[in-house]
Design brief:
heterodimer, A: 501 residues, nine-stranded mixed sheet, 17 helices, B: two-stranded antiparallel sheet, 3% strand, globular
Chain lengths: 501, 138
């Protein structure tokens, strides 16, 4: 059937950030859906969020409660969420308790009461919570209606009356097979609450959705005082990376380093600063942000190891004023350390901040701290998640600087513990070396994907003015091992060897 | 007095009772006014909480009211949620019962939603701008 003749299925907004995208645009209008999951996974909150987002006085939402949570208690708890609009109660959103009808007249009584209410109210959305309790066998045993007939008649009634329906039930996955409820349903939305060590991770899956393409797989979600927020597992993977007509080089805030990098970091690149503890990675990142602010480029710092006020206070010790841009909205410091974070949440937080501030620069300080903030189950996929996040963020044109703490070895020069070098366009390596019985610091530009860069290994110092890069260390070999040898010593040894030979 | 049974809930209860007396035709007694107020509240509360839910709520309110007004001792809540055993002497204590019922609603669903429900029933209730102090409703 061509585009002109096929029926158009309207989509209702869910009111849940991120969920419309997962559903493929929104809720299919007039669909008959199940929201399933274990107790406490957010089914009722999800349903409330959807009804408050859609109900109007003309096309209200009818929320039928059956033997589960009484509506009075439901109202007590649900009004704590910011989406709860008390002004809609009893006009746009109407709660009806069906317990008595079920107890006295079984499924037929429930169907009759729903029919009566639906015909009188002309609702756009109908919710039955908990549908599972309606169907419990002991309650309708001996009554005159079979479960399958009841479900089919209910679906027929609600669809005929142009209502989008949600049946809420505490189902387990083992009940999926041969269940008439799931067969009749157009949509099946399953909520999970997984415990992994001490962390709790919430996930959802659209197991079935007729009429439109939803995003397959498990998507994380969080419940806050604003209700549910969902994070599509394909967040950011749609679309092309932003391209620039010509390469613009962003200053690192350290002129000598800009020179070493061939002019600075190319706009839209992902730059990795790798080094051991105390080598000045965070300071370099802060100088990068401050240089951006000076150039009129708003920035974002995602920090995991210190709080926003500590972050700006530390910057001020180096003469960098981040407090003013923070107050002016030109800088946002995102501090997330919930220990059950998902990469998707972090990504969403940053993307939202990019929209708010128009940020051009992003600092992630550090990747190790980021990994620690993730729930254990997400840490196993950290590398893949980073790939997705960097792809998504560079796709919007932001330039990313990530810091990575490296264990210092004195035999080799590792570039990253996560094998993520391939994810980054540019790499700067900082490390300690022993020179003349003193611990010194060196840095080198290891990789600049888009162009030529200095190959020099330069000594640097951390001063109250920030990082000051010195001259190339010409008189040593094996600098990158951390235990260099003076060339003069090697030459004398060479001469000695030649004499012996 | 319970935290949700405040002078304001008493005042509201009193106004509901007076309203029923005025609106009733022919004129009804104090006792009948109490029944009328409970009956009018029964409908929205039954819709929300079910018949059993309403009965539980009214029973709790009656128990609390009896602690303050022993004259209500003979009053009972019937299985259908209506009041039984009413005697004329205790009728004036009916305001305590209504105040306790409203107080319970405030305890469970808060002042804002309670007032919405009350106003849905008594649309033209005079002085409907009654406001519960923040401290009172807690």
């Amino acid at each position: 059937m061509n585009e002109q003749t096929k029926v158009k299925i309207n989509q209702l907004p869910t009111g849940v950030p991120g969920l419309d995208e997962i559903l493929g645009g929104g809720l299919p209008e007039f669909s008959f859906n199940i929201i399933a999951g274990a107790p406490g996974c957010g089914k009722t909150t999800l349903a409330h969020q959807m009804i408050f987002a859609n109900a109007t006085v003309e096309r209200p939402a009818l929320y039928f409660t059956v033997l589960g949570e009484p509506a009075l208690k439901m109202l007590r708890y649900q009004q704590q969420f910011s989406f709860f609009d008390a002004a809609k109660l009893n006009n746009a959103v109407r709660f009806v308790n069906l317990s008595q009808d079920l107890i006295e007249r079984g499924l037929q009584g429930v169907l009759d009461e729903i029919s009566k209410r639906v015909e009188a109210a002309n609702p756009s959305i109908v919710v039955v919570d908990s549908f599972r309790t309606v169907l419990r066998s002991e309650l309708h045993e001996g009554k005159d209606m079979a479960v399958q007939t009841f479900v089919q008649q209910l679906a027929l009634l609600l669809t005929s009356w142009e209502a989008t329906t949600f049946l809420i039930g505490e189902y387990s996955e083992s009940e999926l097979r041969d269940n008439p409820v799931f067969t009749v349903a157009d949509g099946l939305l399953w909520l999970f609450q997984q415990v992994d060590r001490n962390s709790v991770v919430r996930k959802m899956q659209i197991m079935k959705l007729r009429g439109q393409a939803s995003v397959p797989g498990l998507h994380t979600f969080r419940i806050t005082e604003a209700g549910l927020q969902a994070f599509s597992r394909t967040l950011g993977l749609v679309g092309q990376r932003k391209t620039f007509d010509r390469v613009k080089y962003l200053s690192m805030g350290i002129p000598t380093l800009d020179e070493m990098m061939g002019g600075g970091v190319p706009e839209g690149d992902s730059l990795l600063i790798a080094g051991s503890s105390g080598t000045g990675k965070s300071l370099m990142a802060t100088q990068f942000l401050a240089a951006g602010i000076r150039a009129g480029e708003p920035g974002i710092a995602a920090v995991f190891e210190e709080r926003p006020n500590e972050y700006t206070a530390r910057a001020s010790e180096f003469g960098l004023d981040l407090q003013t841009p923070l107050a002016d909205g030109k800088l946002e410091v995102i501090y997330l350390r919930p220990l059950d974070l998902s990469v998707d949440e972090m990504m969403q937080e940053i993307l939202d901040a990019v929209k708010r501030t128009g940020a051009k620069r992003l600092v992630i300080d550090s990747l190790a701290g980021f990994e620690m903030a993730l729930a254990p189950s997400f840490r196993t996929d950290f590398r893949e998640s980073l790939y997705r996040m960097i792809f998504a963020l560079t796709a919007v044109g932001i330039t990313i600087l990530s810091t990575l703490e490296m264990p210092e070895t004195f035999t080799e020069l590792a570039l990253s513990t996560y094998s993520i070098s391939f994810l980054t366009d540019d790499i700067i390596r900082m490390r300690y070396v022993e020179i003349d019985g003193q611990l010194s610091q060196i840095m080198m530009v290891v990789k600049m994907r888009r162009g030529a860069h200095s190959r020099e290994i330069r000594q640097y110092q951390i001063t109250t003015e920030g990082i000051v890069i010195g001259e190339r260390l010409k008189n040593y070999v094996d600098l990158i091992t951390g235990i260099p040898q003076p060339i003069s010593v090697l030459r004398s040894e060479e001469l000695l060897l030649n004499r012996k030979v | 007095m319970r935290s949700s049974d405040t002078p304001t809930t008493r005042e509201l209860a009193q106004r509901l009772l007076v309203n029923e007396e005025v609106e009733a035709n022919p004129v009804v007694s104090d006792m009948q006014s109490v029944c009328r107020v409970c009956d009018r509240l029964r409908r929205p509360l039954t819709t929300l909480a079910g018949a059993a839910g309403f009965r539980s709520l009214l029973s709790r309110a009656l128990t609390l009211a009896k602690q303050e007004s022993p004259a209500l001792g003979a009053w009972e809540v019937k299985p259908d949620g209506s009041l039984d055993g009413l005697n004329g002497e205790a009728a004036q204590s009916g305001v305590v019962l209504i105040a306790q019922l409203i107080g319970l609603m405030i305890t469970f669903i808060g002042e804002s939603l309670t007032m919405r429900l009350v106003h849905d029933v008594w649309v033209d209730l005079p002085g409907s701008e009654v406001s519960f102090g923040r401290n009172e409703s807690k």
